[in-house]
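Exercise 7. Given the components listed, write out the predicted structure of the assembled complex. Treat all entries as one system.
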Amino acid sequence: MNIMIAGLGLIGGSMTLALKTAGIQSDGFDREDVLSYALQENMIARAARDFMEYDVVFVALPPKAAVRFLTENSFKKGAVVADVCGVKGAIERAVSDKPRDYRYVGCHPMAGKEVSGIRNADASLFRGASMILVENDRTDPAAAETIAALSVSMGFGRVIRCDSDYHDAKIAYTSQLAHIVSNAYVKSPTADGYRGYTGGSFQDMTRIAGVDEKLWTDLFSANREKILYELRLLISELGEYERALSAGDDKALEALLRAGRLKKEELDRQKRL
Amino acid sequence: MNIMIAGLGLIGGSMTLALKTAGIQSDGFDREDVLSYALQENMIARAARDFMEYDVVFVALPPKAAVRFLTENSFKKGAVVADVCGVKGAIERAVSDKPRDYRYVGCHPMAGKEVSGIRNADASLFRGASMILVENDRTDPAAAETIAALSVSMGFGRVIRCDSDYHDAKIAYTSQLAHIVSNAYVKSPTADGYRGYTGGSFQDMTRIAGVDEKLWTDLFSANREKILYELRLLISELGEYERALSAGDDKALEALLRAGRLKKEELDRQKRL
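Answer.
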């Protein structure tokens, strides 16, 4: 099985390293300087030249570049081609709009770091994490199985299956909204000189504030409606606390905090199930 | 030096354990059941009966209870009495409003856990953390030095000094606002079934969501204006992202994300200094 990984950034680079750890070689495709580094570090077997050679292709590029890569190139007939973008509906629609010979599988590795690029690639990045496989009625079961099996080889702890709509709704909330909140949170002038004035809450709240603005604008713009739904909901929730505080209504404030605590406890119970 | 700790919850209990680890015994004051537990576990030397016996008193109670404790009891003349509340201006004002024989020092240990109570007390809770000492022109330097020295014995990594206004402004932002955001964040219906759909961002964002609503209402209500300032600022910042997304204005969205990333990088630089 010939495997190629297009895009050797943090995710693609970590995939090639994780596969190598499992004894599975892959070829890589990227800019010349990235390829030189990948070859020099023995991360990839070869630089991929002819995409028609590959049975499995992982596309680890940002959304717009991934769509171009998937729709402007030809692949071996029946090849399993999987993109790893953080939004799935937009990619799925773009791929479905064009006739194709390959078997498309959308996936999303639930792992990352606050740093990017091949130099931060890490063979153990996916250890224990979820791999989400996004399926629709055109998904080939054998192709999805191939990606699931390779995911296990890469160290993923479990493989979850859902459709792109469910995926995009969950991700808008668990990841995309969190990045917006974190990015907005640091902007208060009070942040300067915060050192010493935190026990960890501030660091957790702002760990992911430093987003790559081009990549994340691309991701957000491919999932606009679902992010807007969550963002408006959160702004409206925060408005409730603002009103209770501003009215000096401690009873209302306590009720708001209690509802949040109970919800958090319910989520923690779900986690333990 | 006789030391008493009033309130043997997570913070007071951890203080008595941390002092004990440093070879310093303290007596405790709390409800009978808590005292029994503390005695049985050898956390305290004795249950404190007569407050006049003590040279140093730590008041580890929620704000309203701390104010009552500080203003309704008598202490040895010249005793160092320090409260550890998360808000300082309101306590300082309440203490200053009454004539007193003791030397008051406001302090705030920058450490905590998502759990509370004596059973979660931990001798190493303060290891490497900041202890904030809040000073004003009535603060006795020798009393502040006593608390600073005991803080070092408890394992604190550094002692920071500021006035209550500065403290309350910083804490409104680094801690109190973070608890509100986290508490509000979990309320989206999308949170149900989040398992598998996160790589850690969601967990970090919501780690502190499960606040004790009575304690935190008490804390918030003692620092209302400063929290309102930060909360309104954040709601207004989030509104900017909402407008950019809703207008499909990717340029504006990218500029917002870029500003947040640059600010985060600046804060990380401050941290390294």
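Discussion: Chain A touches chain B through 92 residues (CB under 8 Å). Chain A has a mean pLDDT of 96.
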